[in-house]
Design a protein that fits this description.
- The protein has 122 residues and is mainly beta.
- The protein has one helix spanning 32-37, and strands at 2-9, 14-19, 39-42, 45-49, 55-62, 76-80, 88-93, 99-102, 108-113, 117-121.
- The protein has one domain (2-121): Competence, DNA-entry nuclease inhibitor, ComJ (Substrate Binding Domain Of DNAk, Chain A, domain 1).
- The chain is 5% helix and 47% strand.
- The strands form two sheets. A five-stranded mixed β-sheet has the order 1-5-10-9-6, with no helix packed on it. It has a five-stranded antiparallel β-sheet with strand order 3-4-2-7-8.
- The longest helix is centred in the first third of the chain and has 6 residues, at 32-37.
Length: 122
């Protein structure tokens, strides 16, 4: 397991996880359900909504297998998929300088709201 910690400026109340080769167009992804879930998804891009428009702690873990999770301690849990054809995920605030996380192949993404932790499974 590899763990990466960031402090991202969540400008516009969001930050991104996306394939570095994807444009990340989310204009139509922030519908009513996405706003409620604080999660918008488009091909190769996940936008995680935050409740703060400021620096937020983000932890990304790259795991070898699907984790056994208990959701009892979380206020909200969302699950979605992301295809990362380039093998490189960019982790960035909406207007931040990009930070790159190198991983072989990511096939599933779990975003756990509470501490904004993302578990990435290659």
């Amino acid at each position: 397991m590899s763990s990466y910690r960031y402090s991202l400026f969540a400008d516009y109340f969001q930050f991104y996880l996306q394939d570095e080769r994807v444009e990340g167009v989310l204009a139509n992804a922030w519908g009513e359900q996405a706003v409620t879930n604080l999660l918008a998804v488009s091909p190769g891009t996940i936008s995680v909504g935050t409740v703060r428009n400021m620096e937020v702690p983000v932890e990304v873990e790259v795991l070898d297998s699907e984790p056994v999770l208990s959701f009892d301690e979380w206020d909200q849990v969302n699950e979605c998929d992301i295809e990362v054809k380039s093998g490189v995920i960019v982790v960035a605030g909406c207007t931040d300088i990009s930070r790159k996380l190198r991983a072989s192949k990511l096939s599933r993404e779990t975003i756990e709201h509470g501490s904004a932790m993302a578990n990435l499974i290659p």
